[in-house]
Amino acid sequence: MNPELLDTLNGIVFNATPLVIAGIGETITERAGVVNLSLDGSLVLAALAAFITLLATGSFFLAMIAAMIVGALMAGIVAVAGITLRQDQVAIGFVLTLLGADLAQFLGQDYAGQSSGTLLNLHLPVLSDIPVIGQIFFDHPIIVYISYALIFITWYWLFHTRPGLALRAVGERPKTAFARGTRVNRLRYVYTMLGGALVGLAGAAYTLAVKPGWQNPPAMRGDGWIALAIVIFGGWHPFRVVFGAYLFAGLRALSSTIQRDPTIEIPLVLLNGLPWLLMIGTLLLVSTGALERFVNAMPRAVQRWARGVLRSDPPEALGTRFEPD
Questions:
Q1: pTM for this predicted structure
Q2: What backbone torsions phi and psi does residue 140 show, to the nearest 5 degrees?
Q3: Tell me: the pLDDT tens digits for 216-259?
Q4: Which of 29, 68, 69, 317 could bond 195 through an S-S bridge, CB–CB 3.0 to 4.6 Å?
Q5: Bridge partners (DSSP) listed for residue 140
Q6: Percentage of residues of the chain with pLDDT beyond 70
Q7: Closest CA to 141 of 64, 244, 227
Q8: Are 251 and 274 in contact (CB under 8 A)?
């Protein structure tokens, strides 16, 4: 295979890693019935926390832990406001995302332009020697391999364990889950903060690997909204969410490649908007019911398969409050 193409595919996997981790985190949270719109602010604030911690301690491990704590705390605020204080989750999340992003930009003024160490590539024995596949997927920093593990662990937990069944139940039919002895609001707290911690880890992936150092304005600002759109694009399923993240990163890479080619005359604004147009189109398909009508128009023999692959219905109790009385 062309070495340049291999490098491009390798870069797509690498650059998509924060979106993969944040998308998985938000999938877990929304599967539990909670909408966490603070992603963009959490990503940026956690990225700053990771960078400052790395400068202070020199430890990548502590930097990732600090970022996860920040993400969990931001998600915890959403959980307290939505579950205990019975406030609107969407409004609280939106305010937090603005607050988190602006706070990070303010606190990061003294660090603007600074750089630090970055996570080094880890060549996995045997796997990295596989032709093509090894060069694309197994020549990365450890954060990329963590994202691989999260994909399969989340999928297995959601669909092949009893706790995963309980998680899906509190997001789909909380009253039924409560009647069977599940502590709905407790689980929602746990999974909201767990999802938030993964969003924080995604923030750390930026400043420790993908976009090392700190800039004002933050380089990753806006990617939290992309991660939210990818969760919807992926139909709240880990594998499809990952596909959406890689597709988005691929479109970004394609846009950059075209911009560097002087023989291709396409407006820069259109190129930069390609990934966003894809997400907007997907949201329109989901919200208008066009996707469901498209599936219904298929032959019966493939409808069941298509519904499994293209399912985009959100958890039934997403964003709703549950009163245990």
A1: 0.90
A2: -145, 170
A3: 888 888 899 999 989 988 889 999 899 989 988 988 887 777 77
A4: 29
A5: 122
A6: 87
A7: 64
A8: yes
pLDDT digits (tens, 9 = 90+) for 272-322: 676 677 767 766 766 666 666 766 777 776 666 666 656 667 899 998 988
Alpha-carbon torsion angle 261, 267, 273, 277, nearest 10 = -110
Q: CB burial class (10 A; 0-12, 13-18, 19+) of residue 175?
A: middle
- 217 preceded by cis ω (within 30°)? yes
To 5 degrees, how large is the angle CA 282–CA 196–CA 316? 50
State the average pLDDT over residues 56-85.
95
Q: What is the 3-state secondary structure (H, E, C) of 85-128?
A: CCCCHHHHHHHHHHHHHHHHHHHCHHHCCCCCCCCCCEECCCHH
What 3-state class would DSSP assign to 305? helix
Closest CA to 282 of 232, 220, 218: 232
The domains located in the chain, with CATH, are 3-310 (1.10.3470)
